[in-house]
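Possible regression after last week's pipeline update?

I re-ran a chain I had predicted before the update to compare outputs. Posting the input and the new output here so someone can diff against the archived version. Not blocking, just want to make sure nothing changed silently.
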Amino acid sequence: MSDIQDQQTPASGVEETDDEIWSRRLAVLWRYRRVLAGAGAAGILACLLLVWLTPSESYSSLKFRLLFDGAEKGEYPSGVRFSTNDVISRAVLDDAYRRFSLDPYGSMEEFQQAFYVAAKPSPEMQALDAEFTGKLAGKLTAVERSQLEKEYLEKKVGLVNSVEWSLALLTSSGIGRRMPSQTREKVLQGVLNAWADDAATRKGALQYQIDVLSKNILPPEIIQDEDFFVAADMLRLKLDKIRKNIDQILLLPGAKTYRSASNGNMSLGEIRSNLDDLLRFRLVPLMHWIRAFGVSEKKDLTRLYIESGIENLTLDKKAASDRARVLEESLLAYSQERRRSSSATGAAFPPRSSEVPAMIPQFGDSFLDRIIELAGRNDDVKFRQQFAERMSQEALKEVEIDKDLSLYKDMLKALEGQSTSTRPASLRESAAKTVKERLDKVYGDLVQYAERVEAIFNEIAGRNLNPRTHIFSTWEPVTTQVVRSMSALRLAAYCVLLFAVVMMAACAGCLGYDRWRRG
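New output (post-update):
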């Protein structure tokens, strides 16, 4: 019946309205609904085909964070530069390849090409960037902007994990595709462990930068071949080096409270106290004894040793004095230059007009320059403090040198007066025997303390620096993701567009076919 009406409508000469036209077209499309359903299915298949044909790669990745000191500067604690290539270096991957017996899945070259390391800001860092980006977007003065930038840098340094790293293995092809998922997870964790071990052993990533002295600095020849005073003085200098070594180790985490069970449950503080007592109550009195009794056995060699020591100390004192003078002159020149600069800046300000009320400030370029200059005064103070500290260090060196010079000069006088000594020979022989015994005892104690210091340092380093817990950390399991050549949003837009084109073409075809059939 509708077909008869459609055929009679044009012949009647009555013009159709828009509603009637659309109603007629919808009726035609309804009759071809099965064809349109097929076209819709074809459109869906076309979209699926588009997704399938879009180039893509799948990766299994393991996120990790760097924990060692200096990671934010791109270097290991030892000072060696850190690079992402270290994580997937040939040595690291070769170790993992052999450890997990991956020969059945592919070659070593294929295994090496399947890895890469990516980095992105951590969520904490992204939140910090967003916070300060919003603050800096407003209208700020130069001082406020400088303060915000300084605050941002301080907070950025304070972030333990400002970068989030991930180790990825290509799984869409090659050796990664042939490996089972469980094996891939073990391999990713194994590569990180192998890198941590390699960084700790080959690069010294977890070695404290402290030159720990051993008993090798105390060869037996000190006691056996040298004169009494020379041997005692050499022991004094070695003892001082060991004390300074202990002071360096005490700065390490947990070193002040650590006690070694294998070394008599002693702490570094107790060893240093014992060394102080050894110097004050045994070694220094022994040197005075040698000087008082004139028990030198090799006077000529001892005299040469003392004179050489006096000459070296004199040169060291002059060098320290010259360095202090240069620092003082440099600081004075810097201060004068700062004053001249400040005077020139102050002269740039015009005098305030009496007609302008005092409550209204006059702003200009020079005013802003002064504000920026005020903001930089903190850096100037720090610079002066550094100079003052270096000058005081040189002054303290001169004090220590003067003390050693006094000791050497007194011994030289005593040595020159031995020829006129009235002490009996038997007394000098007895004193020499006593000095020899006490020197041997001091030497033995010093060797023992040096061994204990080295052992305690190794225990502290071993406790504090575990490669797999102090180089990196992981907090998520291995994840697998597919990365396509275009974003998901763009791919979805293309699919919608393709489906719309297919359906529009189907609708147009149905309407055209119906018109052709009726005409």
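Follow-up from reviewer: compared with the archived run. Residues 219-346+368-418+425-467 form one domain. Marking as no regression found.
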